[in-house]
Amino acid sequence: MKIAWAEVRQVELPLVFPFETSFGRQDTHSCLLIRLGTDGLEGWGEVPVETAPLYNEETTGTAWHILERFILPLLLGREIAHPQDFPPLVRHLRRHHMAKAGVEAALWDLYSQQREIPLAKALGGTRQAIEAGVSLGIEPSVDALLARVTDFLRRGYLRIKIKIKPGWDVQVVREVRRAFGAIRLQVDANSAFTLEQADVFRAMDEYDLLLIEQPLGEDDIVDHAALQAQLRTPICLDESIVSPDDARKAIQLGSCRVINIKAARLSGLSAAVATHDLCQQRGIPVWCGGLLETGVGRAANLALASLPNFRLPGDVSASDRYYHEDLIDPPVTLNRDGTITVPASPGLGFRVALDRVEKHTVRKATFKS
Ligand SMILES: [Mg+2]
């Protein structure tokens, strides 16, 4: 497939309710959407950045710059036989994983449309539906959090994840356990603690959490190994794993027993599949994380999460978890049994609603070869 043109958009969507993590609080989500055109087909991908470099170092501004100046000039007018030919093309450009991942996602969409197969199948997916979990932000009070948990369990979500930070940690877990009993529960610290605070996590061991996600530094796998050795609860790494090789090293060191896979963090779906495969070979379960994606990114996550070693419920939720109106039709919805059906139609399996994309676009540019 020859890429004739590329469109980059920054979109801004209001969130259904504000989302707070150990990084801070947000009530809108900004990201970039990539649209690639070739041979009468269009492919879509999402760059799930934010306007500030909080989750990782990238932002809407840096991703735009890298796409315009470095990535798209390499791609436009070029014949790409397979999406896996894209990572070698941009390997010499250091980092900027999310910018690369958005383009690669659009190539995977094009590729699977061209072959008239679902994206899930192109990636090696085997599940027809995935188990849906929900990620809940830090709330103003424990009562407010309990109300949120009640709401999402009632909607049918199969697993609850709560964001934690120092001072909003073990006592919150205790309250949620007390109120809801043996639900599937896990926590995510987004690197807000240090090894000196290991007692917080040792105290969590009695609450049967599925896992503790990224308790320590975003660039660390050494202190995590020391912490994991003190805990019965599995540590799951998110921010620390930005390549399949990072996963190999973390597993070898004993830094974690579970890995959260986000294609954007890993530089694309190809690296996400490679990380999945490596973890499967080493007996490490994975699950699919989220970065507040709009439907475009959510659809790709859904396809990815259909691979066989995604053995724990992920953060791929229904569209209405985050947005009043999503950018795809139909929106992603939750089945009665708490699963989400993996689309069986070619490509992403959802129609991108251009009118709504247009309505939420704050910046747009088209690039040609
Ligand atoms: Mg996380």
TrEMBL record:
Question: Which EC number(s) are documented for this chain?
Answer: 4.2.1.113
One GO BP annotation of this record: menaquinone biosynthetic process
Write down a Pfam family by its short name. MR_MLE_N
SMART domains to which the protein is assigned, alphabetical: MR_MLE
- The Mandelate racemase/muconate lactonizing enzyme C-terminal domain, residue ranges: 142-234
The answer on whether this UniProt entry bears the keyword Lyase reads yes
Q: Which domain of life is it from?
A: Bacteria
Necessary cofactors: a divalent metal cation
What protein am I looking at? o-succinylbenzoate synthase
Species of origin: Candidatus Segetimicrobium genomatis
